[in-house]
Amino acid sequence: MSAMSSSPWVLLIMAIAVTYLWRGLGTMIAARIDPESRFLQWIACVAYGLLAALISRIVFLPVGILEKTLLIDRLGATAFGFAMFFAFKKHIGLGTLSAAGALMLLVWARGEGIF
Predict the structure, then answer these.
(1) pTM passes above 0.70
(2) Same domain, yes or no, for 102 and 64?
(3) Pick from 50, 59, 60, 89: most CB atoms within 10 A?
């Protein structure tokens, strides 16, 4: 086997080693982090704020195909998604899928034919 044909295997082994090195370091560091610290609470607040801004942007200032939907449909689907999110013990997947499904159902029921 020549050196050239073995180089993809060397690269693969190096990529695996680097990946697991960072995972191991992350595990060691995470064990020492206090999740109740003020800094991490601040990071969580910023993350929730960004998420709220993104949802607001999608609902109130849509782009692309969402521009063709009615505001009342987007608001209704968002409210339904939040209701399902809390009804199913804060399951993000079910909340998101139910909101998307509700929006598609509302648009389909109006007969706008954009989806």
Answers:
(1) no
(2) yes
(3) 59
